[in-house]
Amino acid sequence: SFEQTLLSVLSDEPRPPTQLxxxxxxxxxxxxxxxxxxxxxxxxxxxAELAEDLARWSRHEPIRARPVPLLERACFWxxxxxxxxxxxxxxxxxxFAGLTRQQLVLREAQRARxxxxxxxQFMNESLTDTLRPLGRLEMLNKVNAQVRAxxxxxxxxxxxxxxxARRAHLHRNTASVLRQQGKLPEAETNA
Length: 191
Hints:
By secondary structure, the chain is mainly α. It contains 9 helices and no strands. It has helices at 2-11, 17-20, 26-35, 47-58, 70-80, 82-131, 137-153, 161-180, 184-190. Helix 3 (26-35) runs antiparallel to helix 4 (47-58), helix 6 (82-131) runs antiparallel to helix 7 (137-153) and helix 7 packs antiparallel against helix 8 (161-180). It starts with a helix and ends with a helix. The model has no long low-confidence stretch (mean pLDDT 81).
C-alpha cells in the first residue's frame, strides 16, 4: 500500500543495489546509498557533487563518497594508464628478479668462502699436525706460505673473528716451524 511504502521510505534503510543485482559495481552502490541516506549530513550537499562523483566513477577514478584504499586506487590508476601500469609491473618484476638473483649469488659466494676457509683450516691445523712429527719442515713452510697467501688475498673488511683466530694460528705454526729449523729471527717476526 501507499502508506506502507511511505512509512518504509521514512524509517527503513534502503536495500543495497547488490542485494537486488549482485553484479552492481561497489562504487556505484556507494553513490546510490549516499543519495538515499536518512541522515541529511551523510548525503551529497549538492547535485553538482553527485554529478562529479558519477563522472569520476564513469572515468574509473576514485569516487569522493568514501575513502578509497591504496590498492583500489592503484587498480583505478592501472585501468586509466594501462601502458604505464604494465611498464611498472615489468620494472618491479625485473627488480625483484635481480635482487633475488643477487642474494643467491651472494649465498653461493659465502658457501664457497666457507669451503675455502675449511680447506685452509685443514692445511693450517691438521696437515701441520701430521707433517711436523715426520720432520717435513720444508713442506710445512710451503703449506704455511700458501695459507698466508690465501689470507693476504682476503679484503681487510672480510676478516671475521674466526678468520683472525685462524690467521693467528697460522702465525704460531709458522713461528714454531721456523724455530725448529733454527731460523730464530724469522720466527720472531711471525710470532
